[in-house]
Amino acid sequence: MNSTLAGVLTLVFILLVLAAVYIPLGDYMARVYSSTKDLAVERVLYRVGGVDPRSGQTWRGYALSVVGFSAASLLVLYALQRLQGVLPWSDDKPGMPPTVAFNTAISFVANTNWQSYTPESTISNLTQMLGLAVQNFLSAAVGMAVAVALVRGIVARKTGHLGNFWVDLVRGTIRILLPLAAIVATILVLQGAVQSWRTGFDFTMLDGTNGHAPVGPFASQEAIKLVGTNGGGTYGANSAHPFSNPTPLTNVVQILAILIIPVCLTRTYGTLVGDRKQGLTLLGVMAAIWGAMLAIVWTFESRTDGLATRAAGAALEGKELRFDVPGSALFAVSTTGTSTGAVNAAHDSFSAAGGGALIWNMLLGEVAPGGVGSGLYGLLVLAIITVFVGGLLVGRSPEFRGKRIGQHEITLAALYVLVMPALVLLGVSITVLLSSTTGFLSNDGPHGFSEILYAYASAANNNGSAFGGITVTSDWFQISLGLAMLFGRLLPIVVVLALAGRLAAQSPKETDPATALPSRGILYGALLLGTTLLVAGLTFFPAMALGPIAEALS
């Protein structure tokens, strides 16, 4: 079987599995966040934390809870990294340097998992389990909680309440993320992924020299890094390492793990608002962007323009031959279309057009289908902007599900859209102007610029992947990328919750089809797709022209 046919069959299988779980998982998640019953373990946690699960929070209370929880998590994770050398199970690994610990703590709390270090030689198994893996669960649960809070704001009837953050955090972790991660981890272990209490083993190579292979409880962290769209691996090679992603089957399972929650959350949204066709409209927009990006990357990585690619049959540099071009393209588009950032190939080795498409996938705001929670609330903000702009264009009142979109609502939506571009372009501009930073590039010209653009696009979008040709170990990159990750996570969340609060304070009214723009269907979906592409196009085309486009045309 040739690689193209295998890739097509893999794509069909992934789509069939997503279609099969779409309704049951989507409706299950809706029940999780709307149920009035608590599990026994949840009641224990509420009692220990002094949480009244029946109390509601305004958007300010919800936002303060998110920010406070994230700040506390950041401090704990920072301390754990700095002290890992004196803690048990360190395997003689010293505490991490201050700037690296700062960057990494922000990275995992922000659901980014940017890694400027080699995990197997830097992070102890205790830090992996107690710090990084825990944050993989919690940061993902925070994203889903914020998405659900926005949905509650859309359907609320002048209550001003968005639910309870602590309840949403606990339920998302225990009822959704833990079961799915357990299933994925079990499959990975059965296929040969490493899950061990040992820290490593020695071996003798064929030439007689000795080697050491680090191991640990890695399959379990591999599972949640994907299910929670986190992305930080336990090996420097990430999901290209055979201990993490041993077979083509596990590659398919990992792609499914990345996509399953973001895709099914559109069904959850439709169920919670009582209009499942709206959820299908959002899903259609996500699928259109994801499919277009996959076609672009797959096509350009399959081309044989040069002597080396003609001899190999495709652009195979930097790709794991177990997965070939189709498996690499599927993984790369899925991981940059969500906030995952895991990689099973070297994105820096992709063709200029293929690598440019991966950058563009992030610059669209990662809404196709986006990270767990963040993809849904990002697309809903764009949906509100679409209703406002579309309503003005055709002379209809700007309303979204019976809620008026006025000056304050559209201002908040605009702020949400502007945060990420401001962080990306500011970071890229300063880095390019600083002469000292160019020494950290392995390439000059357009590709060197693309490496910088990719780094800040990845950080501000909480993705975490990178073009490997840039070295980011200097204090400038550690601090600037860390701040981009922090503000790229928390500022949009606060804006989304403020928007949810504005919507929750309104009482929905009956929508007059003659005056209001419908927020579902093919026409609205096309408008939403156009708005998504237009916002990113107007903002980032000059930067893309200086990097990937110039390189592709050269």
Helical segment tally? 18
Order of helices and strands: HHHHHHHEEHHHHHHHEEHHHH
Helix content: 55-70%
How is the largest sheet built, in terms of strand order? 1-2
DSSP strand tally: 4
Rg from C-alpha positions? 23 Å
Structural class: mainly alpha
Q: Describe the sheet with the most strands.
A: 2 strands, antiparallel
The averaged pLDDT comes out at 91
Report the uncertain regions.
none
Strand content: under 5%
Counting copies of identical and different chains, the oligomeric state is single chain
Distance between the termini: 35 Å
Molecular shape: globular
Characterization of this structure:
With 554 residues, the chain is mostly helical. The strands form two sheets. Strands 1-2 form a two-stranded antiparallel ribbon. Strands 3-4 form a two-stranded antiparallel ribbon. The longest helix is centred in the C-terminal third of the chain and has 33 residues. The mean pLDDT is 91.
List the helices and strands and how they pair.
Elements: H1 3-34, H2 40-49, H3 59-83, H4 98-109, H5 119-122, H6 125-155, H7 165-190, E1 200-204, E2 210-214, H8 218-227, H9 248-273, H10 276-302, H11 307-312, H12 324-337, H13 352-363, H14 374-394, E3 399-400, E4 403-404, H15 407-433, H16 445-460, H17 475-504, H18 521-553
Antiparallel strand pairs: 1-2, 3-4
Helix pairs in contact: 1-9, 1-12, 3-4, 3-6, 3-17, 4-17, 6-7, 6-8, 6-14, 6-17, 7-8, 7-9, 9-10, 9-12, 10-12, 10-13, 10-18, 12-13, 13-16, 13-18, 14-15, 14-18, 15-16, 15-17, 16-17, 16-18
